[in-house]
Amino acid sequence: MVRIKAREALDLQRAYFQQLFENSPAGIVMLDDHDIVLNANIAFENIFQYSIDELRGRNVKDWIVPESHLEESRELTTATYRRQVVQKETVRKRKDGSLVNVSITAYPIIIEDNLVGVYGMYVDITGRKKLEEHLREAQKMESLGTLAGGIAHDFNNILAIILGHASMVEKKQREPGRLMQSVEAINKATQRGTGLVKQLLTFARKSEVLLESVQLNEIVNEIVKLMAETFPKTITVSAQLEKNLPSIIGDANQIHQVLLNLCVNARDAMPRGGTMHLTTELVDGTLVSANFPKASAMEYVRVSVSDTGLGMDNTTRSRIFEPFFTTKERGKGTGLGLAVVYGIIENHRGFIEVESKVGEGTAFHFYLPIQHRGFESVEREDTLQKEIPGGTETILLVEDEELLRDLLKGVLIEKGYKVLAAVDGVEAVDLYASSHKKISLVLSDVGLPKLGGQEVLLQLKAIDPEVKIILASGYFEPNIKSQMQEAGANAFVQKPYIISEILQKIRYVLDND
Ligand code: ADP
Ligand code: MG
């Protein structure tokens, strides 16, 4: 009698669990310790369109894991075999080959401390994914709408100023003093428009970084001067710069843009005046990596811009880097400033952080890596460079700036070229005189110490009239350029160096007589 009761209780319990398994809204599959299907429920059949009879005894991976996700699936299995519970949103494959978004939770089955198998619960989340995507689209459209509105408003103001003053110019032809005022207003408005367009362009293609050796102190000084001239007198600007700050490799214009955006924001945060302070300092890489685990350079330059303005609450602070996020009134802010800042800093492999207190002020700090020897060029450019063919020829590289010389040398060697390097014009001519038989091409800066690039060109031609030479300069005076062309320069590159352009020109000159 007692035994019958116990059996009934057991049967009852088994029936409970059986029905729980069968009716669960989540697809459940039970596997042995080799991924072989022991059992699956109706929801599982419904998600994947296989009947349990088709699946039983088979390796589940062969059936529902798309090829592209085999590695991931292996990792999940390994984790469960290590007795972890794993949770993952991913994609799996139905019987008809179509993909399904699923959330997977997998548990190890352990009996008397032995792992005997795994059970996995699958929830179809295709609907949710679709909704998420719609939401993202909608948010993007909303942002674009805000942006377009802001820009249209700004441009309208700018055009109104230009138009207004242009018509005054017509009327004031005989009053030179007031005429000048209008011309000045037109100039300023045009500059504002140009600035706005520049921000938009930087934002639109934030991946293009030019590489040159940049002295951050110089840029900070320029900005300080600019602010002293243009900011209201109620704002005091001060700066404290580290002496002998090493150069960084980057894009001076873009870093200028970063500082300008930060400073303009600081100004806007101090409508009743205040103090702005800029600092530069050299910091150890370990200090930076404590806050930013991805930081891998040995040293960084830290630039800070602080103000005694309105400050921000946490909600604002958490959103400031979002494109188009602004708390400023319509037409005043585009919300692009800090998004641009973020993109630029990231492209320079740098980091940015912010401290702020409502009513007390805000400090932005950004960190840019100091490149030591052997560093690889900025990442985004790599993809471009990969497609440009290299070569095995020997190139004589003449560049007086050490950082740039090392950078170019590294890039050329990586492309297979052999490189001889000279630091000034005299050394270049000497090297060429002794080794011109094996040198296939010369890449030379024009502004060189001791002997300028133009003179180098003439002397190399005297040694070997067939010499192939590419000249680099920040600015080519048209007259001088045509003189150099006549003297036999094969190509010119504009500094700051764009690596992909140089590689292309080198190949072109080498391959064409
Ligand atoms: P915008 O200046 O066009 O609003 P930004 O991206 O430059 O766009 O800045 C986004 C927002 O971040 C600002 O609207 C403001 O709320 C906040 N913010 C940025 N810098 C400061 C600062 N120095 N002090 C207070 N708030 C700031
Ligand atoms: Mg701004």
Can you give a write-up of this model?
The chain is of the alpha/beta class. The protein is built from 18 helices and 17 strands. The chain has helices at 2-23, 42-48, 52-55, 60-64, 70-81, 126-171, 176-204, 216-230, 252-268, 285-291, 314-317, 337-347, 379-386, 402-414, 425-435, 453-463, 478-487, 499-511; strands spanning 27-32, 37-40, 86-93, 99-111, 114-124, 212-214, 235-241, 248-250, 274-284, 299-307, 351-357, 361-369, 394-398, 418-422, 439-445, 469-473, 491-494. The strands form four sheets. A five-stranded antiparallel beta sheet has the order 2-1-5-4-3, with helices on both faces. The protein has a five-stranded mixed beta sheet with strand order 7-9-10-12-11. A five-stranded parallel beta sheet has the order 14-13-15-16-17, with helices on both faces. Helix 9 runs antiparallel to helix 12 (337-347). The relative contact order is 0.06. The model is unreliable at 373-383 (pLDDT under 50). It binds adenosine-5'-diphosphate and magnesium ion. Magnesium ion is lined by residues 261, 264-265, 333, 337.
Question: What's this model, at a glance?
Answer:
With 513 residues, the chain is α/β, with parallel strands linked by helices. The chain has helices at 2-23, 42-48, 52-55, 60-64, 70-81, 126-171, 176-204, 216-230, 252-268, 285-291, 314-317, 337-347, 379-386, 402-414, 425-435, 453-463, 478-487, 499-511; strands at residues 27-32, 37-40, 86-93, 99-111, 114-124, 212-214, 235-241, 248-250, 274-284, 299-307, 351-357, 361-369, 394-398, 418-422, 439-445, 469-473, 491-494.
